[in-house]
Design brief:
Largest sheet of chain A: 6 strands, mixed
Helix content of chain B: 55-70%
Structural class of chain B: alpha+beta
Strand order of the largest sheet of chain A: 6-7-8-3-9-10
Radius of gyration of chain A: 25 Å
Oligomer: heterodimer
Largest interface: A-B, 51 and 43 residues
Number of helices of chain B: 12
Order of helices and strands of chain B: HHHEEHEEHHHHHHHH
Helix content of chain A: 25-40%
Shape of chain B: elongated
Structural class of chain A: alpha/beta
Largest sheet of chain B: 4 strands, antiparallel
Number of strands of chain A: 20
Strand content of chain B: 5-15%
Radius of gyration of chain B: 31 Å
């Protein structure tokens, strides 16, 4: 758009290579990028596309086994291969970074005031007490309420959104030219995500620095970036203005990314469909504190009097931000955690069922987890993982029969049956999630609770997993409870939506009704905050 | 759109289990591999060595008390000459020539009168010579050519103050120390892993009680425990394993419990619960296999620790009893004779130190190889 602007960071033929036991892996394969003063450049790509490693390479922050080659010139000064001392004059002052995880990017031992002052003292000299005034100013700027009091807070006293604001204050401390934001909002809830992005936007307007926004979320890109670079497998596939990329994508990959937004609707089951799982007045309390002889210090109510009726063939979507109790509710419905309320599975009242009484029912009530990396035991083969349920519920099966069932289940989730002799770490996130689904459906369950099954996956893979889940529902007549914070996924998957906040149901109703005409304020905020591309 | 078939699998070369990956990394670590080789050599020396030497560990050589180590056979040629002259004097013959070659000697003796061939008995009476025969008679029997075997002994490591071959004893000590090290580590491993995994997995009050019990055991002095057990059960070889294992499992239990607490929050444990596995099945199938990395590394620290503990017990006289011995007992004995016979300390100490070093290098290598961050 405004091409007269000066290019302040010119990246030419940048390569990042990692030395691994299996030989060199080229994460970035020679890319060219220009960052102009004051613009917002979004670097988009799925995980493993090298978008973060490019920036880490420029900033000299690669892991020990990484090497960077090529050229990255900041206002004519070559950054690649610059000695550490000279590089430190640039990074942290002229080019700064904020990271994805605000929870772990701050040192828990220092107050936030001291941590924000650190780059000031480093780059401008002076003492920490001299820097204090500037820190207060910065805290005000990033919208921390009552900065005079909060300046002496420790990171654990702040919420995730506030910590990200502190990170931004740190990055702004020396009036940078370029602010690199590496997935700055991925770890945050949607409503806070919107606030942080708005803050970045207004700060950019005020100070005129360039922002490099690394993200996988096309919704954010569309709303905030002026230019977009699409990366795939270490190469830049396409660059252009945001409008061009979204309206006239050239590369096939870009088109695929844009089309990967989950779509489709699910029809409601018949009115007469029998109720599969019902929970009435479900409440879950967590005791806090207390030791061997100590008294329980307090009680935290994670789920507060929720009613849920899941009919056969239905998919109930549960939406909520982190801490809203949606996952806890899912586990309570499966009777995996102590909870109060009345529970009914089919015709059986399972309210008073203990662990051993529940065990035979477990095969009909299955659970799929969010993190495909954590939910598969790293020391079992895929075959062992998916047949584990058979080992418990159908111990009479012979080895060969179990193997046969494993092959069937893998075919059903569209994985090569040869996968059963391999270990989970050899598979990608999407493939692992398929394995986790195979583990659940091998038992031929009636109800499956899906706890954020697509949140850790890339958009294009997400779509495939959603399609798979839909197909399985059709062929086996499954009933799903689909827990997610991602409204677009919920919209595509479920026919009934429950919105939760602080353990309570805020609003519920048919998917279309909720999405077209949300009644409650909170639901409306949620809808507005989600930048549906 | 609904029929995207994901049949592509990672390439065949990537099909390696975590264990294979770890083994690969381990093989690339030179120090660790060297440690393993040295350990194997020491084990071979200790367990197969006794079949290749003629002395047993309890054989006493009264003529060779506190002999210094040497590559030359004993007695040496000059002292044999002295002995031979003494024998010749007793036999009232003159020694004209004397030579030793390997295990045989030849001597030419003369006398004024013809010599009775039975004089060979005089030669056999000496400790050093046996099987003396007349090979040739010259000068009408006035000169005899004799040959016979010399009982020459090799003491590469010297002998101890009781005249026992130190090399045989170092081998035996190695057998016992390695056996104690491995078996006591296994005892502590099995108790500690089970206890720690159970305590950590069940958690809550059970965990509290179980870990307080561990702390109570920690606070008991080790020697006190040993003395009590020895008083109750009498001294025996098995007891050493039991006592050491009973002390060492405490650390193992703590390590495994810590691991278990972290594992418990992983989703695959939740998945196993949702599948309806019992607690015991989860501990056995999921918890224990996943703690194996840190446990294996800890074992390489426990083995030298156990060998040291056994040495300490032997030093106090509560360990293995003579004529059996262990490296620790040998070192204790050597320390008492450090001025008069330093080799008694040096040889067992070399083996002991080499073993500990190798174990540490191997343990370091294992830790690096099994480090999940390096995946």
């Amino acid at each position: 758009m405004n091409d007269s602007r000066e290019t302040i960071l010119a990246v030419r033929d940048l390569k990042v290579t990692f030395t691994t036991p299996d030989g060199d892996v080229q994460a970035v394969k020679g890319i060219d990028l220009d960052i102009k003063a004051g613009e917002t450049l979004a670097v988009v790509g799925e995980s493993g596309s090298g978008k973060s490693q490019t920036m880490m390479g420029i900033m000299g922050l690669l892991a020990g086994n990484g090497r960077v080659a090529g050229s990255a010139k900041y206002r004519g000064q070559e950054l690649v291969g610059l000695p550490l001392k000279a590089l430190n004059k640039v990074r942290g002052a002229k080019i700064t970074m904020i990271f994805q995880e605000p929870m772990t990017s701050l040192d828990p031992l220092y107050t936030i005031g001291r941590q924000i002052a650190e780059p000031i003292v480093q780059h401008r000299g002076g003492t920490f007490s001299q820097a204090r005034a500037r820190v207060l100013e910065l805290l005000e700027l990033v919208g921390i309420p009552d900065p005079k009091r909060r300046i002496d807070s420790y990171p654990h006293e702040m919420s995730g959104g506030q910590r990200q604001r502190v990170m931004i204050a740190m990055a702004l401390a020396n009036d940078p030219d370029i602010l690199i934001a590496d997935e700055p909002t991925t770890a945050l809830d949607v409503t806070i995500q919107a606030q942080i992005l708005d803050l970045l936007n207004s700060l950019q307007a005020k100070f005129g620095m360039a922002v490099v926004l690394i993200t996988h979320d096309l919704g954010i890109v569309k709303h905030f970036a002026s230019r977009v670079a699409v990366m795939r497998r270490g190469e830049v596939v396409e660059t252009g203005t945001t409008a061009d990329i979204f309206e006239r994508p050239q590369a096939d990959y870009t088109k695929m990314l844009l089309a990967a937004e989950p779509h489709g609707r699910k029809a409601s089951p018949a009115e007469t469909a029998p109720v599969m799982l019902e929970g009435r007045n479900v409440s879950v309390d967590y005791a806090t504190g207390g030791g061997l002889f100590g008294k329980k210090a307090g009680v935290f109510r994670a789920v507060d009097g929720v009613n849920i009726r899941l009919k056969e063939g239905q998919t109930i979507g549960i939406v909520g931000e982190s801490g809203s109790g949606k996952s806890t509710l899912g586990r309570a419905l499966l009777r995996l955690i102590p909870s109060s309320g009345r529970y009914q599975f089919g015709a059986t009242n399972i309210s008073d069922f203990g662990r051993s009484a529940m065990r035979p029912l477990r095969r009909q009530l299955q659970l799929v987890f969010q993190d495909p990396y954590g939910s598969l035991s790293p020391r079992q083969t895929v075959g062992e993982i998916i047949t584990e349920g058979l080992y418990v519920h159908e111990p009479q099966l012979s080895r060969a029969e179990r193997d046969k069932r494993a092959i069937e289940a893998l075919k059903e989730v569209r994985l090569d049956p040869a996968a059963r002799n391999r270990y989970p770490h050899e598979f990608s996130g999407g493939q692992r999630q398929r394995i986790a689904i195979a583990r659940a459906i091998i038992l031929k369950p009636k109800v499956v609770i899906l706890d954020e099954p697509t949140s850790a996956l890339d958009r294009s893979v997400q779509g495939q997993v959603i399609d798979l889940l839909r197909d399985l529902q059709k062929t086996h007549g499954l009933s799903y409870i689909f827990i997610s914070h991602d409204l677009s996924v919920i919209k595509a998957m479920s026919d009934y939506v429950v919105v939760m906040k602080n353990g309570k149901v805020v609003e519920e109703g048919d998917t279309d009704a909720i999405f077209e005409a949300p009644r409650e304020n909170y639901t409306q905020t949620l809808m507005n905050a989600a930048f549906t591309a | 759109m609904t029929d995207i078939v994901t049949t592509e699998l990672p390439p065949e070369t990537a099909s390696r289990s975590l264990f294979q990956l770890a083994a690969m990394r381990f093989r690339r670590n030179r120090a660790a591999m060297a440690g393993c080789v040295v350990l194997a050599l020491i084990a071979l020396f200790s367990f197969l060595g006794p079949y290749f030497i003629s002395h047993t560990y309890d054989q006493v050589f009264p003529s060779y008390v506190s002999v210094a180590p040497s590559l030359e056979p004993r007695p040496d040629a000059s002292s044999l000459q002295d002995v031979m002259e003494g024998v010749a004097g007793r036999a009232r013959v003159d020694l004209k020539e004397f030579a030793v070659e390997g295990q045989t000697f030849t001597a030419i003796v003369t006398s004024d009168k013809p010599i009775d061939p039975r004089t060979t008995r005089y030669f056999d009476r000496a400790n050093e010579f046996e099987g003396t025969q007349v090979v040739a008679t010259e000068d009408d029997g006035k000169t005899l050519k004799l040959t016979g075997q010399v009982a020459r002994e090799y003491f590469f490591f010297g002998t101890d103050s009781n005249g026992r071959d130190l090399m045989a004893r170092v081998m035996l000590g190695g057998q016992i120390s390695i056996a104690v090290g491995l078996l006591a580590s296994l005892v502590s491993l099995s108790i500690g892993v089970l206890y720690g995994a159970t305590s950590g997995y069940i958690g809550g009050r059970v965990d509290n009680v179980m870990m307080r019990f561990v702390e109570i055991l920690y606070s008991l002095p080790f020697v006190f425990l040993v003395v009590v057990l020895v008083v109750f059960f009498g001294r025996s070889f098995i007891l050493i394993f039991l006592v050491i294992g009973a002390v060492e499992w405490l650390d193992m239990a703590r390590i495994v419990r810590g691991q278990t607490l972290a594992l418990k929050r992983r989703e695959f444990i939740g998945a196993a619960q949702a599948l309806g596995l019992t607690d015991w099945q989860i501990i056995r199938r999921h918890i224990i296999p996943n703690t194996i990395g840190p446990v294996v590394v800890f074992v390489t620290v426990v083995v030298p620790k156990v060998i040291l503990l056994e040495s300490f017990l032997s030093f106090l006289g509560l360990g293995v009893q003579a004529p059996l011995t262990s490296w620790g007992a040998l070192i204790a004995e050597g320390a008492n004779n450090i001025q008069s016979a330093p080799w008694l300390l040096i040889f067992p100490a070399i083996f002991f130190v080499l073993t500990l070093f190798s174990l540490n290098f191997a343990g370091d290598g294992l830790r690096d190889a099994l480090d999940p961050k390096d995946r």
